[in-house]
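Section 5.1 Outputs to date
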Amino acid sequence: MSVQTVREYLKQFNKDKDILEMNESTATVELAAKALGTEEARIAKSLTFYNGEEAMVIVVAGDAKIDNKKFKEQFGFKAKMLAHEDTVKYTGHAVGGVCPFALPENVEVYLDDSMKRFETMFPACGSSNSAIELTLDELERISKCKIWIDVCKNW
């Protein structure tokens, strides 16, 4: 998928014109924070994991890391991130542009509590040079997240 696919998806929420497209890469937390002029913690990382025969996306604060013990307690299985080649196959987005928008219906989205210390976050929008600033309520609604969870550490 692309930023254009995400733009089409965001139209239903009247957010399609709020996508920020930069000349520089936003493919990593560090690059995104620099391009957006914000702290790394406010970059919403969309991490992709295998969920049986399907995939799931967990959106976490840029400074947070998955805690394997908490993950297993939450989901009942070990965390295993999608291989690069499976990321596009399962989510429709390439690594560096994965976001919680315009995903296949079988991909569940979870939001991590590590983001709750901020009023707004910056998730990607389907490309390695895009982002959007959203409140947590907007992120919850637009991502169609299943639930808020606590599976991170070091934040």
